[in-house]
Design a protein that fits this description.
280 residues, globular
């Protein structure tokens, strides 16, 4: 038993004090309690304002989401890869559809990539808002959809990314505290995506060579950002270095054995984390 107060906002982990928020922000009385905490445990779905309040008044917060807020999304990932000089597919960022049209249609600047290439909306997960653009017709249809989302949902920003031949699979690396879990997501059927929600299949047979090749980049990412709970998607083109694609802070648990297995793994890592800060 630790000799300082631990506050848990996570419904699955008991601590010295438990606060359940759901999707709400902290009340004044709850903020006062956070100020007295030595460590705070947060759920994956915590809001940005909750995270930053805990982070401001408590040095020890798990998980570390310093780079999640406000950088979550395809654009934030692309900027992070560039700033950390981590290998990734060539990517161009656009703040809105009209900017794209002005640049490439009114001003006549050539597209950054030849067909096919990939267009990704800043928001979306599980393969949603990701489009393989094979020709001008695909491009117009995709831009029309993005413009509709800008107008009706306020969803601004997207990226163009070079298409990388990836042997119909991508690698997912799940980071839970100090542990790393590797598995392939395999394309299934006619869809070019390998996301499980899009029909992809799990292959846990990742060779030691692949792990040794990808592992140092994941370690660098975690060391420089503090990330300790996330899933990182990686392309592994044959004969070249791995390319980092996306960070997923809220990810599926099927490949980890389901929710019960996930929470068991997470609980052990939270306990390990608490022991490292004992005495601070």
């Amino acid at each position: 038993m630790l000799n300082f107060p631990v506050v848990s906002l996570h419904p699955c982990f008991e601590a010295d004090l438990n606060l359940l928020l759901g999707d709400k922000s902290l009340s004044s009385s709850q903020k006062d309690l956070i100020k007295k905490a030595k460590a705070v445990i947060l759920p994956q779905g915590c809001k940005a304002d909750v995270y930053w309040y805990c982070r401001q008044y408590c040095h020890h917060v798990f998980p570390n989401y310093d780079y999640r807020f406000p950088g979550e999304g395809k654009i934030g990932d692309a900027l992070l890869w560039k700033s950390l000089r981590l290998p990734h597919p060539r990517t161009v960022i656009y703040p809105e559809v009209n900017h794209f049209y002005k640049l490439h249609f009114e001003m006549g600047r050539a597209l950054p990539f030849t067909y096919p290439f990939v267009v990704k909306g800043d928001r979306g997960g599980e393969g949603n808002m990701v489009f393989l653009v094979k020709d001008e017709g695909d491009l117009k249809q995709t831009l029309d959809l993005l413009f509709s989302l800008e107008k009706n949902q306020g969803w601004h920003g997207f990226i163009l990314q070079e298409f990388i031949a990836h042997q119909n699979r991508d690698l997912r690396v799940v980071v839970i505290g100090t542990q790393r879990f590797f598995y392939w997501r395999m394309k299934h059927g006619s869809d070019w995506k390998s996301n499980l929600a899009q029909g992809g299949k799990i292959d846990p047979n990742v060779s030691s060579d692949v792990k040794a090749n990808v592992g140092p980049y994941i370690d660098t990412l975690c060391q420089k950002t503090g990330i300790n709970l996330a899933a990182i998607d990686v392309l592994c083109p044959q004969g070249t270095q791995p390319l980092l694609l996306e960070i997923n802070y809220y990810f599926g648990r099927k490949a980890l054995g389901g929710s019960d297995s996930f929470y068991e793994l997470l609980g052990k890592e939270v306990e390990k984390w608490l022991k490292t800060i004992k005495g601070h």
